[in-house]
Design a protein that fits this description.
The chain has 245 residues and is of the alpha/beta class. It contains eight helices and ten strands. The termini are far apart. Bound molecules: adenosine-5'-diphosphate. The site of adenosine-5'-diphosphate has 12 residues, from strand 1, strand 2 and helix 1.
Length: 245
């Protein structure tokens, strides 16, 4: 079995519209090893979202290949791709995207129900406990704080035991204290459970929770930092964002 949860090889994604062509990703080769936490950073428009979408099988590269575990995504039908995402990939976004009419435990069980699987007894509670919400199972999203809602979203992403969890600005809608709680949870999932996490963020403090920060500029990988402090990450970002005179 591959040691990488996800691997991109020479991935290029071009958008063509009205005679103009934008290269959002330009020959990106990158691996996300199992049990590691990677942050992806870069100036606005550098290709972060496109990278996440291609790596997660939500978008198809123009050329190059993406492998999740030992499965090559190129050439998979839409149906197979949908099944793979449902069973092997977890997502959390800035907006929590919970269904307001459902309780926390019903929201968490939803991915299994959509897949036609009945949640094992106790499994939903177990995952809610993992994110510190064992006592909120019957609450609806409107009865919870933003941080609690994001933790429900995390539990929902983990219910299928995904190969990889993709997080797109997961703390973007939270105050800094609550954001840190969510980041501490993510870090714990990597350290304790060997979860693989890839997170897009513009926040150096959030990125400092990762093992590795990969920087993108103009759709290309522009270096990385390992186990870096928020200060070092911020300094690197400031250099990348500096407009040359
Ligand atoms: P980031 O997430 O770093 O802000 P994106 O991946 O969203 O960057 O975008 C990278 C580049 O691709 C930008 O120039 C953006 O305008 C372009 N782009 C992204 N999505 C589309 C699209 N659907 N159609 C056309 N251009 C796009």
């Amino acid at each position: 079995m591959s040691n990488d949860a996800v691997r991109l090889r020479s991935v290029t994604r071009r958008y063509d519209s009205g005679g103009t062509s934008v290269t959002a990703l330009d020959q990106v080769s990158l691996a996300f090893p199992r049990g590691t936490f990677t942050a992806v950073m870069g100036p606005s428009g550098s290709g972060k979202s496109t990278l996440l979408q291609c790596a997660a099988g939500l978008d198809r590269p123009t050329s190059g290949s993406v492998t999740v575990g030992d499965t090559e995504l190129t050439g998979l039908s839409e149906t197979r791709l949908t099944l793979l995402r449902r069973e092997r990939i977890g997502f959390v976004f800035q907006a929590f995207n919970l269904l307001p009419a459902l309780t926390a435990e019903q929201n968490v069980a939803l991915p299994l129900r959509l897949a036609g699987r009945r949640p094992k007894k106790g499994r939903v509670r177990e995952v809610l406990q993992q994110v510190g919400l064992g006592d909120r199972a019957r609450h609806r999203p409107t009865e919870m704080s933003g941080g609690q809602q994001q933790r429900v979203a995390l539990a929902r992403a983990l219910i299928t035991c995904p190969d990889v969890l993709f997080a797109d600005e997961p703390t973007g809608a939270l105050d800094s204290g609550t954001g840190r709680e969510v980041l501490t949870l993510l870090r714990g999932m990597v350290d304790r459970d060997g979860q693989t996490i890839t997170m897009v963020t513009h926040d150096p403090i959030a990125a400092s929770y990762a093992d590795r920060v990969v920087f993108l500029v103009d759709g290309r990988v522009n270096g990385e930092l390992i186990r870096a402090s928020a200060e070092d990450i911020a300094a690197r970002m400031a250099r990348l964002e500096a407009v040359p005179c």
